[in-house]
Specification:
single chain; alpha+beta; two-stranded parallel ribbon; 2 helices; 26% helix; 12% strand; GH114_TIM-barrel
Length: 80
């Protein structure tokens, strides 16, 4: 069982479960999820949604890409 000892927890969007955030809330805490919006990370569950053009020859994403913006919106919505 999760026991909250702080008021606010900054946790990774993909490395934590709904049970973790529910446990934080149940103990009076607040969970803030973070993710990297400007880099391509091939280990993330949504990495297959990016095209090669979205991260040409680097880990940096091309934020001009409508595909990149769409994927980031899905992360905000947690709906991918």
């Amino acid at each position: 069982m999760w026991v909250a000892t702080a008021s606010v927890y900054v946790i990774d969007l993909f490395l934590n479960s709904a049970a973790t955030t529910a446990g934080i809330a149940a103990n009076g805490g607040y969970a803030v999820c973070h993710f990297n919006a400007g880099t391509y990370e091939d280990w993330q569950p949504d990495s297959g949604l990016f095209t090669a053009a979205d991260h040409p020859a680097s880990a940096w994403l091309d934020i001009r890409s409508s595909n990149v913006r769409s994927i980031m919106q899905k992360k905000f919505d947690a709906s991918f």
